[in-house]
Amino acid sequence: MNYKIVADSSCDLNEALKEQLNIKLVPFKIDVDDKKFIDDEEMNTMELIDAMKNSPNPVRTSCPSPGDFVSEYRKADNIFAVTISGQLSGTYNSAVLAKDMIQEEEPEKFVHVFDSRSASIGETLVAMKIQELIEKQLNNFEIVEKVESYINGMKTFFILESLDNLIKNGRISRTKGLIANVLNLKPIMGSTDNGEIKLVENVRGTKKAFKRLIEIIGETGEKFEEKILAISHVNAFERAEELKNEIQDKYNFKDIILVKTAGLSTAYANDGGIILVF
Asked: Which PANTHER family does the record associate with it (predicted)?
């Protein structure tokens, strides 16, 4: 049987992962004022960052349509789709509707859609788990069961260098954003069990925030030797590399991967943002 993994473009990849995974990304569309971006391999994220910095308005994103997913679902007999958290976007609903559409045409086709309840590198880890289980030749229903269990155990955290996009999009008030800037507060954010964004802690200063994030890994995780930790960054390679090295020194993860964000994750996390999932 032939298999394919389909994900939206929140799933951030590096060149090694692109070669490793049998995956196709369905792009988001991103608008900043009159500038329009398609979140594919040709997109220039630095142009997006500059556009966001120069605009007083919120970034607008459009999720892939059901038709976009249907086009990819046609390309294999067995499809596993992964989407950004359904609490953050309508992409999961779009992918499920596409499943219903394609199975009306081809009732024998297998399609399952996973809500990652995460974003960015969290989606990537889910796709990697699917690929691992396919290569072990598990049947489709075993893959679904084990991947859903994997998603239930994932931890997602992120630190934003800039709160501008959260303020512009109304996720925090301008007053709270001003106070955070004046006090040099760096919020450590995370995901709830159902994939919503939550505040984990407010920490004063960037260095202290990243030190505290490393401590939180130990407080919230276990059996690190069985897990892969993934870090994605928005134009912050040196900081992400330093974080990776410090985590390697403290914990015995099976592997740690480092990835640069593509368009959608860049729009969410903004310049300097770091996302960490394990």
From this structure: DEGV DOMAIN-CONTAINING PROTEIN DR_1986-RELATED, FATTY ACID-BINDING PROTEIN TM_1468
Closest Cα to residue 83, out of 7, 26, 12?
7
Count the neighbouring beta carbons within 10 Å of the beta carbon of residue 193.
8
Structure tokens at 87: 């609490």
Specify the pTM. Answer: 0.94
CB 130 within 8 Å of CB 80: yes
Average pLDDT (48-69) is 95
Q: What is the pLDDT of residues 99-146, one digit of tens each?
A: 999 999 999 999 999 999 999 999 999 999 999 999 999 999 999 999
Q: How far is Cα 141 from Cα 17, in angstroms, rounded to an integer?
A: 25
Strands 78-83 and 110-115: parallel
Distance between CA atoms of residues 24 and 269, nearest Å:
23
Question: pLDDT value at position 179?
Answer: 60
d(CA 215, CA 66) in angstroms, rounded, equals 41
| C-beta of residue 52 within 8 angstroms of C-beta of residue 59 | yes
The contacts of residue 44 (CB under 8 Å, 6+ apart) are none
Q: Kind of pairing, strands 197-204 and 228-233?
A: unpaired
The one-character DSSP state at 10 is T
**Residue 225 DSSP code:** G
The pLDDT of 193-211, averaged and rounded, is 92
Question: What is the rounded distance in angstroms from the CA atom of residue 195 to the CA atom of residue 87?
Answer: 6
Q: For position 172, what pLDDT does the model report?
A: 63
